[in-house]
Design goal:
Layout: E1 25-28, H1 32-43, E2 48-51, H2 55-65, E3 71-74, H3 77-82, E4 89-92, H4 98-110, E5 116-119, H5 125-136, E6 141-148, H6 150-156, E7 159-162, H7 166-179, E8 182-183, E9 186-187, H8 197-225, H9 231-241, H10 249-259, H11 282-293, H12 298-310, H13 313-321, H14 339-372, H15 378-384, H16 396-405, H17 416-423, H18 426-439, H19 444-457, H20 463-474, E10 487-489, E11 497-499
Length: 500
């Protein structure tokens, strides 16, 4: 229980603040994401309470940005909580894991019944489910909210994916709608569902992001090392692509990265970066959860593995030093491939592979929603991802329409619009993968995405043989195409077929 006599903005040595008023929202954690989110709230006319474990960071934010709006800085959790109007609403923007648990514990002790704690970090959704249960036992509300858009999004308008109780959304909704990105006047935020739904959706969003970035990387790699196109020209190609079906934030920034020159050497910036990609875990979580749910997210999985392989620098160097055989490799010229035609084929293969990544991501979200009884509406996700977030793209408008037309769509790839699109992409997709193989250039997500597509459309898969093998060595049984029931063949005896 907080002391009602505590006055906001009265912490020792507190910088200039907004005295004699209460804050509509508070932010804990004044690193870049937290401070930018606080500035975003303030820019929309809200008084914002701010707190950081290290008071120096709070002071630095006030010194640098205090003139941008009404802030109430505090140097203790107790003062921070006292500076919030009821029901108190505090957003945690600290490192996921034990640090988040520690802040939650402090806030729960300092807050009153009905107050709301919002975790805006990239927490694992199962942690969010646990935390909501623990916080609810103390009479407080807990909301796990996925926030996408990076530092710029936090400041200018992110895509926000809050879970938690419906009652909390009714209180928080207007505040979050104020700071979210807007597309056609519609805020890029909606209530996703109960407990961990928001962080689950943000996790899968990040998994799609992994695949999206990897297929763009594969397209770059093919054009650079198969077609021999220099970074400056590649920047222009990606800029042109961004004016069409591939219009998206990631394509836009790809052109910017390729256009950049290294200030020290004058070389293309792309050529001075070590080719080992990092990751913070959300992509891995997406794949692990998909395995538990039995959902094939092969494009996302290959993207995660591609990052892991890129970072295996010693192993890669050993393979190069050991002259790992490549076989007989071709060139575009020896294959008689026209450069401009190849560029267009790569564009189409990129588009097709991106569609598969999004389709697989939505499949996992639908499966997770069913598993946890969240009732997530995929069309709502496509709508709020149109702006603010890292995977925002023009075709999300089409995805929104697809789920509006059929909320129970079995696969995004079966939507009439996307079926027609794929009909115009698939030949190029196949050609690119064949050429990449002949040139010895890796395209793990391009290839796995096409294989997934072909598996969906195949009338028969080799799983029939696998079931026969499983029954042979382990009596795991099988089903028949011509009758109901479950069967086992007596392989070590007279091979009689037995009903099970």
């Amino acid at each position: 229980m907080t002391n009602p006599e505590n006055r906001p903005g009265t912490s020792p040595n507190a910088p200039n603040s907004a005295p004699n008023s209460l804050a509509q929202i508070g932010v804990v954690g004044m690193a870049v994401m937290g401070s930018n989110l606080a500035r975003n709230f303030a820019s929309k006319g809200h008084t914002v309470a701010i707190f950081n474990r290290s008071p120096e960071k709070t002071r630095a934010v006030m010194e640098q940005f205090g003139s941008e709006g009404a802030f109430i800085p505090s140097e203790s959790i107790e003062d921070f909580v006292a500076s919030l109007e009821r029901p108190r609403k505090a957003v945690i923007m600290v490192q996921a894991g034990p640090a988040t648990d520690a802040v939650i514990a402090q806030l729960v002790d300092a807050m009153d019944e009905g107050d709301i704690i919002i975790d805006g970090g990239n927490s694992l959704f199962t942690d969010t489910i646990r935390r909501e249960h623990e916080v609810a036992q103390r009479g407080r509300h807990f909301v796990g909210a996925g926030i996408s858009g990076g530092e710029e999004g936090a400041l200018r308008g992110p895509s926000i994916m809050p879970g938690g109780p419906q009652e909390s959304w009714e209180t928080l909704g207007p505040l979050l709608e104020d700071i979210a990105a807007k597309v056609d006047g519609v805020p890029c935020v909606t209530h996703i569902g109960p407990d961990g739904a928001g962080h689950f959706v943000k996790m899968v969003h990040n998994g799609i992001e992994y695949a999206d970035m990897q297929v763009i990387g594969e397209a770059y790699h093919l054009l650079r090392y198969a077609a021999g196109i220099a970074p400056d020209e590649l920047a222009e190609i990606f800029t042109e692509w961004n004016a069409g079906d591939l219009d998206s934030y990631l394509i836009e920034i790809t052109a910017e990265v390729l256009r950049q020159k290294d200030r020290k050497t004058g070389k293309p910036f792309i050529d001075v970066i070590v080719d080992a990609a990092g990751q913070k875990g959300t992509g891995r979580w997406t794949v692990k959860e998909a395995l538990d749910l039995g959902v094939p997210v092969t494009g996302i999985g290959e993207a995660v593995f591609a990052r892991a392989l890129s970072s295996a620098l010693a192993q890669r160097q050993a393979a190069q030093d050991g002259d790992l055989p490549a076989g007989e490799l071709s060139t575009l010229e020896s294959l008689g491939v026209d450069r401009d035609s190849f560029v267009e084929d790569v564009r189409r293969a990129l588009y097709a592979s991106k569609l598969v990544a999004y389709a697989q991501g939505f499949d996992e979200i639908n499966a997770g929603s069913q598993e946890h009884s969240w009732s997530i509406r995929p069309g709502d996700l496509a709508r709020i991802w149109r702006g603010g977030c890292i995977i925002r793209a023009k075709f999300l408008n089409r995805i929104t329409e697809a789920y509006e037309n059929d909320p129970d769509l079995p696969s995004l790839l079966l939507d009439p619009y996307f079926k027609l699109e794929l009909a115009g992409l698939v030949d190029s997709w196949r050609r690119v993968i064949v050429i990449a193989t002949q040139l010895g250039l890796p395209v793990p997500v391009f290839a796995s995405s096409l294989s997934y597509y072909d598996s969906l459309r195949s009338k028969r898969l080799p799983a029939a043989l696998i079931q026969g093998q499983r029954d042979f060595f382990g009596a795991h049984t099988y089903k028949r195409v011509d009758m109901e029931g479950t069967f086992h063949t007596s392989w070590s005896g007279d091979r009689e077929e037995l009903d099970y």
